Amino acid sequence: MDEVLVDNDDITLRVEVTGEGPTILCVHGWPELPRSWRHQVAHFSERGYKVAAMNVRGYGGSSAPAEIERYTLRELAGDAAAVAAALDDEPVVLFGHDWGAPIAWHTAVRHPDRVRAVAGLSVPHAPPTPLSLIDVFDQLYADRFFYMLAFQEPGRIESQFAADTRGALKRVYFGGSGDAPANSLLGDAPRDTEFLSVLGDPPDDPSRLIAGERDVVRAMVPGVDRFADPGSGCTDFRGSTIIPGIGHWVQQEAPDAVNAALDAFLASL
Question: What pLDDT score was predicted for residue 38?
């Protein structure tokens, strides 16, 4: 992977480029970075494409101007077109996900000479309407919380995330995943609710028990087999491996069996 810097007037865009061949340009959404495309980068670069994943303006190592008006779709599409032109003399294929999808769609509309095909992930193309999208959501969610509207106040979301960035991102990623309750990002909370309080906490991390059949811990509570239902207190329990004839020093008494069980667990993540 090579890192390329592309200038679009006063904006510098950091781009990760892998492979050789016709260019695919990947545009991430929120709250993501080029790493969100890692599986596509590996897949298509091995199949004869040059795959570029850009840091969108405001993210990662790209320029992040403070003015709100510097983040219109016109400007963001101009960034993608500038990257496409810098990487290939021929039109490129665009992949866009989440907020990267509207950027990809609009790049194709505004810069058709730079784009030969678009794949939008999660967000379909929406033709222009008399009202801006924010105005539409302002009407639809007049009395309810909606995260895009909360994001319009500079600094409001940033201050919430700054208190625990890792924890906040985990809640966002879980809230938008298929494991979360349906439409958890859309809730029925009041309009002025803080964003992170709308999101539930993610479940416990994936877990597994590995133990020896003759482990003393198994019988520490008289009359109770502590290995009978080891996942009862977990939310994402991946099963147990009880190794016959082995005691408490399990990883030393049966290293091969323990390693095999650990390999299987890691493969399930």
Answer: 95
- Describe the chain by its helix, strand, coil percentages, rounded to 5: 40, 20, 45
- Stretch (H or E) spanning 211: strand 207-212
Predicted confidence at residue 17, as pLDDT, reads 98
| Residue 242 three-state SS | strand
Positive/negative CA dihedral, 181, 185, 186, 192: positive
Kindly report the pTM of this predicted structure: 0.78
d(CA 41, CA 25): 10
**Smallest Cα–Cα separation from 265: which of 245, 236, 243?**
236
Between CA 141 and CA 235 the distance in angstroms is 33
Tens digits of residue pLDDT in 144-189: 888 889 888 888 889 989 989 999 998 888 888 887 777 877 778 8
The domains located in the chain, with CATH, are 2-121 (3.40.50.1820), 133-198 (no CATH), 207-267 (no CATH)
